[in-house]
Design brief:
Elements: H1 4-7, E1 19-21, E2 38-42, H2 59-65, E3 70-71, E4 80-81, E5 84-89, E6 96-101, H3 115-128, E7 141-146, E8 151-156, H4 163-167, E9 197-203, E10 207-212, E11 226-231, H5 235-243, E12 249-251, H6 256-264, E13 270-275, E14 280-285, H7 295-304, H8 307-314, E15 319-321, H9 336-341, H10 346-355, E16 362-369, H11 376-390, E17 394-401, H12 403-411, E18 417-422, H13 450-461, H14 470-483, E19 486-492, E20 494-499, E21 502-503, E22 521-522
Parallel strand pairs: 2-11, 2-12, 16-17, 16-18
Antiparallel strand pairs: 1-13, 3-4, 5-6, 6-8, 7-8, 9-10, 10-11, 12-20, 13-20, 14-18, 14-19, 15-19, 21-22
Helix pairs in contact: 7-10, 13-14
Length: about 525
């Protein structure tokens, strides 16, 4: 029923978001004036308002309220100066990266944004050092040097051609030293930034009201004066609000059923924008767990899991089976898990367990977040449980928590096996390997693999031409397959559902699929 050869086909490069727009809105002009705030719905609520704590969906809000030295203008696949006027490597070894700030920058409260504030923001991330937080992105940074009010130099401890991409992530948001303590997180529920919008009101897990920041000085365009973001627990409720005109746009967490229904809908009042995506979904095995820590158990799970069945039965083919941590379309992608395990086989899995002296059924507890990735996540884990238990080799207990509590749990190492999704920090294979390995990583679960962290990644980062890094990433993925500590499941596409009156949704997603709210506007002519 599932054609694996078809599923393993190569797709076009996904470094930039390309979109296919349904509906007649492509013939419409945009308005810089709107009728009240644009109402946006998502299931991805922030876990924190402080950039020093976040390596997750909180970035969506950060991109629109804070500012970074570099960011992505609409349609770009490489970062360009934002708070900075210019940035460049000043040496041939890619170890000194210098930026000059725009003149006259201020935070939304009127305080000066200068090179000292940038240094303060970066140093603060490393000093607070939240487990599973963004400090893991700064592994190549040795020190930050302020030359004067507008010039700053980042001294790297090794060549890192990806460092400009790191500076463009919302994790590197610039904060006001007068409002953010140097040694602890800010927890008063407010934000002071210098980005396109200010946070005028915030109800944790429910709404975020954004207003245009009149002090903003950067590259982002704003085609509306205000945006209200509403956070939902599930896709059906969110889509119902869209159909009832309580929302203008819905994205992040749209269930497959809702995507397919809107695509098939003859109603001209809604449009579905579909874009190529580099989102991936995968399982993480905790090496400290008595059973998940055994390589044979992990490999037996890998041998049983049927990815095409998950893609078809749960996601109605709105996602693609994935056999590598690096998604299709990026330099360095392989099909290592398919090459090693091929078709799902309970017989081969039993042999793996028997040869390791492991009795069956193997009891494992699988954890997933009940709200972060949409309502299909529960069905996905129920399908995984069914596949594994039908093999006769496993006994699976499913557990879930809301995202905010879920993050705390995996950072503490509480889960034997847990699900994660990954929206890239930047469109490079490095960002699908580096965040998950090393003593400090985005999973809060140490994964010590010196061959990757001390050899392959440094070698690849010395190459400015990313076409020269294929061998390094193939070798890194070979190690990931052999360890089976991370088990890729599927690669997604990007879907945005919007009222036919809304323009700009096809331009709003940056290369890391974060929505730039300023691109959204209401149409004024038909």
């Amino acid at each position: 029923m599932f054609n694996r050869i078809r599923r393993l086909r190569q797709v076009a490069a996904i470094a930039s978001i390309s979109s296919l727009v349904a509906g007649c809105g492509v013939l419409s002009s945009d308005s810089t004036e709107d009728q009240g705030p644009i109402m946006v719905g998502t299931t991805a609520a922030p876990s924190t308002l402080d950039p020093a704590a976040s390596w997750d969906s909180s970035w969506e809000l950060f991109r629109n309220i804070y500012q970074t030295l570099l960011s992505y203008p609409s349609g770009a696949s490489a970062p360009e100066p934002d708070a900075a006027e210019s940035c460049r490597f000043t040496d041939n070894s890619n170890t000194k990266y210098q930026c000059e700030l725009r003149e006259g920058l201020t935070f939304s409260d009127g305080h000066t944004l200068d090179a000292k504030a940038v240094k303060y923001s970066i140093d603060r991330i490393r000093k607070i050092n939240v487990n599973g937080g963004p400090a893991g992105l700064l592994g190549s940074l040795e020190r930050v040097q302020v030359l004067n009010d507008r010039e700053i130099v980042f001294h790297l401890n090794k060549a890192d051609a990806t460092f400009p991409f790191v500076l463009a992530t919302p994790a590197m948001s610039i904060v006001d030293p007068e409002d953010y303590p140097a040694d602890k997180l800010r927890e008063d529920g407010t934000i002071v930034g210098s980005g396109p919008y200010t946070l005028s009101s915030y109800d944790d897990g429910k709404t975020a009201e954004l207003s245009k920041n009149d002090r903003y000085n950067g590259l982002a365009e704003r085609k509306n004066s205000a945006v209200t973001i509403r956070y939902y627990q599930d896709s059906p409720t969110m889509v119902s609000a869209l159909r009832d005109k309580k929302l203008d746009v819905a994205f992040r967490g749209l269930a497959a059923d809702d995507v397919v229904d809107i695509q098939a809908d003859d109603d001209d009042e809604l449009q579905m924008i579909e874009g190529s995506g580099t989102e991936i979904n995968y399982l993480v095995f905790n090496p400290k767990d008595p059973m998940a820590g055994k390589a044979a158990v992990r490999k037996a799970v890998a041998q049983v899991v049927d990815r095409p069945a998950i893609a078809h039965k749960v996601y109605r083919d709105t996602v693609e089976p994935l056999y590598s941590m690096v998604p299709k379309g990026l330099t360095g992608h392989t099909t290592g898990f398919f090459d090693d395990y091929g078709d799902p086989s309970a017989t081969k899995a039993r042999k793996i367990l028997t040869e390791a002296g492991i009795s069956t059924p193997v009891k494992l507890k699988f954890w997933y977040t009940s709200d972060r990735y949409g309502s299909a996540t529960k069905a996905e884990f129920e399908e995984l449980k069914s596949q594994l238990e039908d093999s006769g080799l496993f006994q699976i207990t499913l557990k879930s928590r809301p995202w905010k509590d879920y993050v705390t749990g995996y950072q503490k190492g509480e889960y034997p096996v847990f699900g994660r999704g990954w929206f890239p920090d930047f469109p490079d294979a490095d960002n699908f390997i580096a965040p998950f390995v090393g003593e400090q990583n985005a999973l809060g679960t140490p994964y010590v693999t010196p061959r990757i962290t001390e050899d392959l990644l440094p070698n690849s980062r010395a190459q400015s031409d990313r076409a020269n890094v294929v061998k390094d990433f193939e070798d890194a993925q070979r190690i990931l397959v052999d360890d089976a500590r991370l088990l890729p499941l599927w690669q997604g596409r990007q879907y945005v559902a919007a009222s036919a009156e809304i323009s700009g949704a096809e331009r709003a997603l940056d290369p890391s699929t974060i929505m730039m709210m300023g691109e959204l506007s209401r149409k004024t002519s038909w």
